[in-house]
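Hey, I was hoping to borrow your eyes for a little while. I've dropped the whole record in just underneath, so have a look:

——
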Amino acid sequence: MKQAERGFTLVETMTALLVLGIFITFAVPLHRELNQMFYRERMEMEMVHMLEHKIESLASNATLAGAGSEQVSSQELERQHYQITWRSVQIGPYLYEVQVEVNGKDRDGKIHKKRWVTHRFVRAG
């Protein structure tokens, strides 16, 4: 009686390893690129949130005219810091122009900037 064959042949094993190697060759760079894209998108969303928050806090302030800058750490991304600068200028009797800019560097060292400009009408009390 002949014993039943068990296991894989060397050719089958080498073929499986070759297919796995080809898959990994494409999968690893794609995974890295998707992670970087996710990080950049998360960073952009956080920057927009900071812009909204700063403009609203400046609008609720009684004295709009002025300028300033502050360093803010990210609440969602590790080791991520942003520089927020703002400037408010009176351009008319009751009209102010408010500019807010947020700068941040991503993991690759590329600087991302978001800048919003708005106008506020402030009626004298």
In short: Helices lie at 10-60. The first strand starts at residue 66 and ends at 73. The longest helix spans residues 10-60.
